[in-house]
Write a structure and sequence with these properties.
Number of strands of chain B: 3
Oligomer: heterodimer
Radius of gyration of chain A: 24 Å
Strand order of the largest sheet of chain B: 2-3
Keywords (chain B): Cell membrane, Membrane, Transmembrane, Transmembrane helix, Transport
Organism (chain B): Asticcacaulis currens
Structural class of chain B: mainly alpha
Distance between the termini of chain A: 19 Å
Shape of chain A: globular
Membrane topology (chain B): Multi-pass membrane protein
Subcellular location (chain B): Cell membrane
Number of helices of chain A: 12
Order of helices and strands of chain B: EHEEHHHHHHHHHHHH
Radius of gyration of chain B: 25 Å
Number of helices of chain B: 13
Largest interface: A-B, 101 and 103 residues
InterPro entries (chain B): MetI-like, MetI-like_sf
Distance between the termini of chain B: 29 Å
Chain lengths: 299, 303
């Protein structure tokens, strides 16, 4: 990393005296690239920003700006079914995150630490939930909970959310395992041997030496699992029943019906939550959290 | 070194138990049942008999469904292509930007990606619908132009017709590009960032232009990264459910929508299961092709 950084720095330094001419590889200082970047940013952000701005618009038709209001927030926050859906989503995401982090970290450590027959198969098996199309997994969960493992009806909240939580863990924990394994690669195995030489048991070595080392990846994995769960629509759509509606499923039924400022308000709240979570991830993990599970680590 | 599992049986069993059980019971069993159903037949309303028939797969090859498969492949390919074309310059800009900007530029790309898919799709609906922001702007321009025409003594433009931007294939492709662009930019960035810059400088020094350097140096070297970006974009685009469902019209159904309707409305689970597994097989074929390309690229790198 450090030597590529120095290569990168050289052309800039060379060019410093002649301010006008960009270095040969300073693509950021060429106007076509700048224009392109701005256009893509507008493409990515304009719809979201207009959605957020128009949640404050005092007009039912939501087309022309009529003036500032917080009415639709009041409406969204007093809409009991929306609140219920939101609470369901948060609770599902919390449970799914805790289970995914534990199960994902266990899988990552087992794969990193041990040689065993069927290791390649297990490794490949863990990758399948990541690549299988969502719709197929959703259908699988629908069939599974309808025929093989019917989740009892009428359980008290939050136990009635169990089926959705199980489905969410199934697609989240392999992602956590990917993130944790990337971190394990930088662990010095001699530390473990040292701990054992000094008399620590296998279990204590694991908890006192290995787990502290992978802690940042556990937090990054947790945030990833939380977002994946909060974001999921398709798989939840096939698993949820009439009394276990999640936020995306609720928004979906509202959107099918019509475009209303109330949906904008509810969406804005979720966007703000997501942005806060992202910054939290940045704080804990540095910038590598940005690409956790999607970028360079993913093999 | 890795330990053999025999050296710490207890720990190994403790670590492996939960992931293995979860993976098998809550992932492979559900998919396995769907796979079995794809060889089954409907008996009555809720009973499905496993008869080992191939008729569901045969039905999937009927022109109607084959057409939807071809269309889905085509839409996913077009989406992927547009993502490469749009995303490549962005990845390039991020790669060669000053170090202190990089995290912020990456954040700029990733922030929409972390936002809920449904909300992003909904935001697009608000932009594209006939009273949406695009059409509002268009109408404003149209009416002003029309007024201007009357002012200078020409025929006015006639009544305003909103552009039909929503509920068609255009909206589906636009929505898929909108949703998947960050998927493409990240792998592109991570390959471009690892490129040996001196090769680019050499090419420029030896007189090749920037465009030529791109096509004969950067793109061949970044081949593996482009291929992985293509795969990461193509697979979810092929199986997309929400985007064609919300943005598409009656003729823009993709495979996922047909699968959903077989399981929910048409109640023909065996046929839906067969469609589902064709989609899974297509995904695996994509991954296998990418794996082959990747290993041949590595071999070339070695030689």
């Amino acid at each position: 990393m450090s030597d590529s950084a120095s290569v990168r720095a050289t052309p800039v330094e060379k060019e410093r005296p002649v301010k006008e001419r960009p270095g040969p590889l300073d693509y950021m200082r060429r106007w076509p690239i700048q224009a392109w970047l701005i256009a893509v940013t507008v493409f990515l952000y304009a719809p979201l920003i207009s959605l957020m701005v128009f949640s404050f618009n005092d007009s039912k038709r939501n087309v022309v700006w009529q003036g500032f209001t917080l009415n639709y927030y009041a409406k969204a926050l007093t809409n009991s079914s929306l609140i219920e859906a939101f609470t369901n989503s948060i609770v599902i995401a919390l449970f799914s995150t805790v289970i995914s982090v534990i199960v994902g970290a266990m899988a990552a450590i087992a794969l990193w630490r041990f040689r065993f027959a069927g290791r390649t198969a297990f490794d490949a098996g863990m990758a399948i939930p990541i690549v299988v199309p969502e719709i197929c997994m959703g259908v699988g969960m629908l069939v599974f909970f309808a025929k093989i493992f019917p989740w009892p009806q009428g359980l008290p909240w939050p136990l009635n959310l169990g089926a959705i939580i199980i489905a969410h863990v199934s697609f989240s924990f392999p992602f956590v395992a990917v993130v944790v394994r990337a971190r394990l690669a930088s662990f010095n195995r001699e530390l473990e041997e040292a701990a054992k030489d000094l008399g620590a048991s296998e279990w204590r070595t694991l908890m006192d030496v290995l787990v502290p080392h992978i802690q940042p990846s556990l937090i990054a994995g947790a945030l990833l699992a939380f977002t994946l769960s909060l974001d999921d629509f398709v798989i939840t759509f096939f698993t949820s029943g009439p009394d276990t509606v999640t936020f995306p499923v609720k928004i979906y039924s509202m959107v099918r019906f019509s475009v209303t400022p109330e949906v904008n308000a509810a969406s804005t709240i979720l966007i703000v939550v997501t942005v806060l979570l992202t910054f939290l991830a940045l704080k804990f993990q540095g910038t590598s959290a940005l690409t956790a599970g999607h970028g360079p680590e993913k093999k | 070194m890795e330990q053999s599992w025999r050296q710490a049986k207890g720990l190994f069993a403790a670590l492996m138990s939960a992931p293995l059980i979860w993976l098998v019971f809550f992932f492979f069993v559900p998919l396995g049942i769907v796979w079995l159903y794809s060889f089954g037949e409907n008996r009555g309303l809720i009973d499905i008999a496993f008869t080992g028939t191939w008729s569901n797969y045969a039905k999937a090859l009927e022109p109607l469904y084959l057409g939807i498969f071809v269309k889905s492949l085509w839409v996913a390919a077009l989406t992927t292509f547009l993502c490469v074309v749009i995303g490549f310059p962005v990845a390039l800009a991020i790669t060669f930007s000053p170090d202190k900007w990089k995290p912020w530029l990456l954040l700029l790309v990733m922030l929409p990606f972390w936002t809920n898919l449904l909300i992003r799709t909904y935001a697009l609906i608000a932009v594209l619908r006939s009273e949406g922001y695009v059409n509002q702007t268009y109408r404003f321009l149209w009416e002003n132009a029309s007024g201007l025409m009357t002012l200078i003594g020409l025929q006015p433009l006639g009544t305003f017709q909103p552009l039909e931007l929503l509920y068609n294939n255009f909206a589906v492709v636009l929505g898929l590009v909108y949703v998947h662009l960050p998927f493409m930019i990240l792998p592109l960035y991570s390959t471009l960032d690892r490129l040996d810059r001196s090769l680019l400088e050499a090419s420029l020094d030896l007189g090749a232009g920037h465009i030529r350097t791109m096509f004969s140096i950067v793109i061949p070297l970044a081949g593996a990264g482009i291929a992985s970006g293509v795969l990461i974009t193509f697979i979810p685009a092929l199986g997309a459910y929400l985007t064609p469902d919300l943005l598409g019209g009656t003729d823009s159904q993709m495979i996922a929508n047909v699968i959903e309707s077989q399981f929910k409305r048409a109640n023909n689970w065996p046929f839906g299961a067969a469609l589902c597994f064709i989609l899974v097989y297509l995904t695996f074929i994509g991954i296998a092709i990418q794996g082959l390309l990747d290993s041949s690229a590595k071999k070339r790198g070695m030689a």
